[in-house]
Amino acid sequence: MNAVHLQKALAFIASGLVEKEKLLKESPNRYPYSKNLQRGINMFLAACLEMGRLGENTFKYADESSFLTQYISKPLCEWFDDWDQAALVQYEINLQPFYAYGPFAYHRGKNNVYITTEECVEFLSTQENNIIEGTDERALYEKIIQLSQDDYCKVRKYIIQNPIITIEDRRAFLLEYADNANAKEAFNLAYELFEGTYTTCAACGWTMTEGIYGYSCVSEHCLEHMPAIIDEMKIDASMKPVYRLKKGIMRYFAQPGKLEMSIAKFCEKKNLEYSLWPQKDRFDIEIRFNDGEIWEIDAKAYRNPISLCAKIKNDGGFPAGNYKFGYYVVPTEYTANKSNYTSVVNKVLTQQPNVKCVTLAAIKRKINQKVGEING
Ligand SMILES: [Zn+2]
Question: Half-sphere exposure of residue 299, counting CA atoms within 13 Å on the CB side?
Fold first, then answer.
């Protein structure tokens, strides 16, 4: 056993949960069996057997449903409650990047249905390529990067601004890009046909649907902002199908995209010279102030600061460039219950003193301040 083994076990569990959710969506009447989940469970329990005080009792969690009942709705720090104190110290479990994650899934309804949390998907997105390859958002990024700079910006903006489109919208897009195979492929990677009943989510603009277990949307956090849903808000797409962004695209492409658009809008209001995605996906926004100073911004919508730290490490830090300051900008509301969010991230940025993690509210203040200085 070592910490890497444990990290892998948890990555397989996270990817298995996501896979189960996908399988359940494809065939609602079949039990969604995931090999990755079982593999992760076996790896985790093997570590428990070695490090824990459970002994033979470990085996009672070997089947999927007992394991899920016992562990999956608990924050990760509680998964080690049965471990020997000495083992926890030896492997510095509390310092491992997985330790600070919340529950990977929550339980819904009487049957064994678990819905993955945003933290679970975030954890997964920070793992090795072989575990996350094949995700929808990864495929989309790989496709749009092949577009020209101009088409890249147009297609990216379209996807961010249109979580749900009509068949006519789709036809118009495909007609406009009739001669551009990459753009058409990107479009088809981003959207899926949807024929269910939905209401437009007040929080994110995606399809909020009602299942036997209640309402659900792109993230469990959408429900926090949900108004009381009345019949008039329900749209039946079975008669008139729509296309919607795939869930992964909505979560990891369109959500940060909204942050990018909101910074762009602010720059516009302040009459600043800026560009969105100036070098495709190298930076999100570049601001060029009147005194020649350049700021680069990378918008990130990770709920857990540890996920963002892992992402920054995987990327090898903020990309190099001819800028005075670089900023990772996160949604202000993500820091509401995590007052140390930005300081956690800034700890991994000490090698790049001109790069900081700030909230959307803070970057606006900084821009205002800079404009004030220039105007004297
Ligand atoms: Zn939503």
Answer: 23
Ligand 1 centroid to 166 CA: how many Å? 18
164 C-alpha to ligand 1 centroid (Å): 12
**CA gap 230, 227 in Å, rounded:** 9
Q: Check residue 163 and give left, alpha or beta (phi > 0: left; psi -120 to 50: alpha).
A: alpha
Dist. CA 256 → ligand 1 center (Å)? 14
> How does pLDDT run across 109-164, given as a tens digit for each residue?
666 678 889 899 888 888 766 555 567 888 899 999 999 999 999 999 999 999 99
Sheet holding 355-359, edge to edge: 273-276, 285-288, 294-299, 325-330, 355-359
Per-residue pLDDT at 303 exceeds 60: yes
Return the CA Rg of the chain. Answer: 22
Rounded CA-CA distance 90/265 in Å is 50
> Residue 364 C-alpha to ligand 1 middle, in angstroms?
25
Q: pTM of the predicted model, to two decimals?
A: 0.80
Full set of structural domains in the chain with CATH? 3-131 (no CATH), 136-250 (no CATH), 254-374 (3.40.1350)
Average pLDDT of span 346-358 = 96
- CA dist 141 and 22 (Å) reads 20
- Measured in Å, residue 74 CA sits from the centre of ligand 1 at 24
Mean pLDDT of the chain: 90
Q: What is the pLDDT of residues 6-44, one digit of tens each?
A: 989 999 999 999 888 888 888 888 888 899 999 999 999
Q: What is the rounded distance in angstroms from the CA atom of residue 183 to the CA atom of residue 154?
A: 10
pLDDT at 342 over 70: yes
Residue 184 class from Cβ within 10 Å (0-12 exposed, 13-18 middle, 19+ buried)?
A: middle
89's tokens: 């110290």
